[in-house]
Each structure stands twice: as C-alpha cells, then as structure tokens.
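We treat protein structure as text, and this decision shapes the records that our systems exchange. Such a record has a labelled line for the sequence and another for the backbone structure tokens. The record that follows is passed on verbatim for readers who wish to inspect the format:
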Amino acid sequence: MGKAIIRFHDYDGEPSSVSVPAVDLTAANFDAQVAALGSLRTALEGVCVDLQTGHLIGNDYTVVTGSAARASSPLAQRENKWLVRYHDSGGSYTMTIPCADLTVLDPNNRGYMDLDGTEGAAFVSAFEAYVSQGGGAVTVDEVEFVGRNT
C-alpha cells in the first residue's frame, strides 16, 4: 500500500507530520497520484494555518529548508488538530491533521469543520480523491476539532 507524508511547522517552528494512506504508485498512475496529492496539499492550506515544509511520495521533496522555518500565524499550533473520521468498504478509520484553522468551523455544529463551505468541501474532495485504505475509495464522515498534547 502506498502513502504520502506531509510535513508541517507551527508558529514556534515545532514539526508535525501527517501520513496519508494511498494506492500503490505505478508507472501508470504516478502522474495522477502526484496531481491528486498536490490537490490534497492545497486543500490542507485552506483548513490549516501551519507552514507546509515538505512532503514525501516515493521521493522526499523539501519545500522549505532549515529547522528555523515557522508558520507566520500565532494561531498555528500543532496541538489544535482536525480529527478526520472516514470509512471504506473494509472499515472505519481516523487520522489527525495539525494546526486546525478554526475559521472553517461549522457555525451550526461548532465542534466540526463546515464540510459544505468552500474550504471544507475542497478538503473532502481532495482527501477522497487521494486517500485509499487497501486500494478502495474512502468517504469522509466528519472532521472534528480536537486538542491534543504532542
């Protein structure tokens, strides 16, 4: 099973990373998977306030070098996380994403991301297009704001 790792720094320069399961990379799907990961990374910029410092998909690509790289917003705290709950035909899964941007909370369901808003819908679309558990398509059920000690 394939995967991608996306690395972040928060306001204090503390590193975090997210490991995202995906389909195996092949010569036939490589370009499409790289494009899908690019869309997911862009969508993460809409729902997080951190600084993406690099990613890994087959090879390691460093976007920002040096351990001193920091997010510009003081609200970029890696302890503020999105808890993504999703499923496929084989089961239910969760993962967390650091530095949640709380401006995309649902005003009608305040502890959760507004999945119908522009940023939330873009995230769901990109997540479902890239993420795969064992080769099958996934569906995002909800994205909850949680605080986590790291």
User: Anything to note?
Assistant: The chain has a mean pLDDT of 90.
